[in-house]
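seq:
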Amino acid sequence: MAGLVKKFLASASVVAGMSAVFGAPAMAAGFTAIGTDLILREQVGTGFEVTNDLSQLNSVLQGDSSNPGGNVEFGSSDTGGNSLAGVQNSQGTAIFTNVTEDIYNDVTWQQTVGLEWFDDAWAQTAFAGNNFVRNSAYGIFLTNGGFDMISDPNISYINEVGDDIVVGLAGHLNLADRFRDVHLGLANFLEGVQMSEIFAYDINGVTGFGWADSATATGLADNDAAGSFSGNYEVVIDGITGQVLSEPPAATPEPSTILGLMAIGGLVAATKRKSAK
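struct:
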């Protein structure tokens, strides 16, 4: 199923009504940058051009599933030690960031959130039922800096669609392409797998991590050998109940960037997606 989100919540808030969630009017303010370790890419034709002009931040984040457009990369360093980077709304109540090195190198995080991400990917492989091969592949993933590679998400849009929060991530339509130059054997295992990178969020004190395991082709590609940004992934959260949606919400005209976000109601402490394979 498309648009599935995984999230591990450290706390929960319960509020009533969407007026407390989205505020009014919806277009009252925009996102501002957190940190300086960001790359802004504007769509030019079927490719991208790096601008890094932070005044274009909200323009870059105005895409949707039919036209993802450019993206903002959080934590752009490829050498490890990624500093905190992301965006937040004007009130500081809706924050979306990368996963920093101190988090993804933490053993507990790796054995919970990180392993859940890997197992979501592994479930799509031809070796899904083989624990010996899975364990070997996971070891290769760890020793080759796999978590560092998937912790700097490229966000195309953050939209309000009805009562839902929709985060679009630009990624590889085929996850194997991300790892071909890292470890060919791992890439062969992951051939045909669809998996986004991981982002962290803090919404009114509710913290978690999100990713998606189904993509649509964008018709776009960066000029790198891996064909980055060829897939659009969506993470969808119900803005009232906090429940994971198994399908993206029905499109509404001109979905607006989520602004004035105050709270998410009815979130549970740890939500796991169960989908039919």
